[in-house]
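Hey, I'm writing a tutorial for new members on how sequence and structure tokens pair up, and I'd like a real worked example in the thread rather than a made-up one. If someone can provide the structure for the chain below, I'll link this post from the tutorial.
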Amino acid sequence: MAAALSGASIVAAVPSVLHAQNDDGTTVQKRVQNPEEEKRLKQYGLHLTAGLDLLYDDNVYRVDDRVENPTDDLIVTPSVEATFGRPIGRHDILLRGKIGYDRFISEGQRSKLRLDTEAKANIRFGATCLITPRAAYRQQRADYGDINSATENLQKFATIGADFTCERPGLFPVASYEHDTTRNAAAFDYADQTSDTFMGGVGYSMPSLGTLTAYYERVNSKRDTLGIENRINSYGVRFQRAVTPITQIDADLRWLDVNSDSTAVGGYNGLGWKVSLSTQAIPRLKLTATTERAIINDSLIASGFAIDTSYRIQGEFSISELTSAGLYAEWDRRKFRQDAALRPYSITADRNRRFGAMLTRKLSDRFDLTLDAQHYVRRTDTSVSNYSGTQVTLGAALHF
């Protein structure tokens, strides 16, 4: 997928100085940390979290429950997550690693190890300039709804890259580079992919206006086994602003120019976007609406790419300082561009819907519980691989 200008919103945190008087009338200086610096300081040191998730899924093989009897199962996932942050002068390093195991109680052959790791460094120079080299690795079991087949697939994702910005009032530069690889099991090696993403642009920031960034982005994405490459040129503008202290808007609009080595896959020219609006105009209630259209190269269906359009609305209500609840709904439509000579498949488009509710309870400073229930529905343009089902997850986390 085209990257979303990840380096443009990073700014070096500089504490302000407050002048105050002691009881004897002498003046002293006190450091006042802004929110960005407070967030940075909380990441320092070693933090451990032990988790246990109990997930009930009434359709683990993603069959059409209108014509077949779905198989349900309970998936138990114990996990351990560690984060470590350390300052080095003005700079810092941040490490994160999570390991878990998805254990299917009845369908044991589906059980898989889950890994999610990340490392990055914040290198600050000048007044506001920041370079963030980063690397990540993730592996997980593919969902049957993605592969449209009752065959196991362990996916492995690796990323290396770097972001650069000098965000400050007035004009400033932004740039980023990212190298991504996706690897699948042998039966799905047609979806193995290697991508390189380059982005460069100019931003303009004013407290009364917000931050406006114009950029160009290029993505070269190659299907290694199929020997086919897709290229995405994006010409975009991103706008970020806190309209009021309780309302935030983030809008990314881009023109997409996509082409492929395969004439059967073809190209795409059209508008892409990612727009998010959040508000807390009603006390204790946060409302968020998000919509996005993007090009997805990493697909277990298409040999080329997919045009993905999604919408999501969510409400989060703070019942008390220790308890919060939420509702959400999301809709997603994908149109697949593929070459039948490379990989025949009957689906050319699908629609996915999810409706859910969440409940979070903080029992202490170190222990919290979450409950998430959702109903999912998928419909395709050919009625092949339709399915629906319900998932309920109870999660517990202990922080050290």
